[in-house]
Write a sequence for this structure.
């Protein structure tokens, strides 16, 4: 056992997928976003393309890494002409491409903008690429304050969530009236084959045992159901540009960072059948600004690139357009189902 500035941790020098000894990718790393304690390294498996945190905090101390994490307040929808146009674009895409029966007359401008690839991808990601005709029981693992579940409930899904953070659970239950279990997915003990769809949006990289969590998803997903996982892409264009300053590393909360190859391997070891593995550039503009600030300032307190000037924002837009055209997006999107 290692005492890492008050965080108990254990050595993790071998790949969880193949057991090979990893090579040091970066060392002497600190939390550059929320000031969590500890000095960390990132290891890489040359065979599996998996990257992981070393040493690894024990489960009982992981909460110490989240003391100053994101707030859990429900954000009110903005108003104004621009917000109305954004809503029109969103609803146009959801109705025309995803089959959601939204009763709203769309502006011509909204319908035109909805045909732009990067904008469509942002809207589609907002519903985790789940289509209207697939509606049924939806479980969001790591649901946070429940805003995604509330949105999906309004679109006709029967929703439930799992979230370990007590403050986030309180917001989801008290402010939004959602059914949310506090704890891990394994602790929730849902019935076999209970859900038509399961979503994990930037969660798999935080869990100590990704394969075990994916196995539990397999158990509670009905035959023919859909699991959608979104996670940072260690092979992204952003990582290639920014290296150790890339926002997606998020040491020490990201315990594992996946490539398409390693995420597929983890899913298949969990008994899942991978139906689709691709990338998305929907977050590229923000990742560019955040990574630029980390490279420039050495840290990004609060995780918000508020000091990004006009030039950096324009560069971020250009970066997003290039990444969308070329591929190698900042996030992996995996769609999987049960075998058999």
């Amino acid at each position: 056992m290692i005492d890492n500035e008050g965080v108990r941790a254990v050595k993790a020098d071998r790949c969880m997928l193949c057991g090979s000894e990893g090579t040091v990718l970066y060392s002497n790393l600190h939390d550059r976003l929320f000031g969590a304690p500890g000095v960390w390294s990132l290891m890489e498996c040359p065979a599996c393309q998996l990257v992981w945190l070393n040493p690894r905090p024990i489960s009982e101390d992981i909460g110490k890494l989240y003391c100053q994490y994101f707030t859990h307040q429900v954000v009110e929808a903005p108003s104004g002409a621009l917000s109305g146009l954004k809503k029109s674009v969103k609803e146009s895409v959801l109705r025309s491409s995803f089959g959601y029966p939204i009763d709203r007359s769309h502006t011509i401008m909204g319908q035109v903008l909805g045909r732009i690839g990067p904008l469509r991808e942002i809207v589609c990601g907002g519903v985790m690429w789940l289509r209207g005709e697939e509606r049924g029981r939806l479980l969001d693992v790591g649901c946070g304050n429940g805003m995604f579940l509330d949105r999906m409930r309004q679109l006709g899904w029967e929703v439930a969530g799992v979230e370990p953070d007590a403050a986030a659970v309180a917001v989801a239950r008290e402010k939004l009236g959602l059914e949310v279990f506090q704890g891990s997915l394994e602790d929730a003990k849902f019935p076999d084959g209970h859900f038509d769809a399961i979503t994990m949006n930037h969660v798999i990289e935080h869990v100590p045992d990704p394969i075990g969590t994916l196995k539990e998803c397999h158990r509670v997903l009905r035959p023919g159901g859909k699991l959608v996982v979104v996670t940072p892409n260690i092979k992204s264009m952003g990582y290639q540009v920014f290296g150790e300053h890339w926002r997606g590393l998020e040491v020490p909360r990201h315990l594992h960072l996946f490539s398409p190859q390693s995420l597929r391997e983890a899913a298949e070891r969990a008994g899942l059948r991978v139906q689709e593995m691709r990338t998305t550039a929907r977050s590229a503009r923000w990742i560019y600004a955040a990574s630029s600030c980390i490279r420039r300032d050495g840290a990004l307190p609060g995780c918000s690139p508020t000091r990004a000037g006009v030039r950096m924002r324009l560069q971020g837009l250009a970066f997003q357009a290039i990444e969308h055209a070329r591929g190698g997006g900042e996030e992996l999107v995996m769609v999987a189902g049960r075998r058999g």
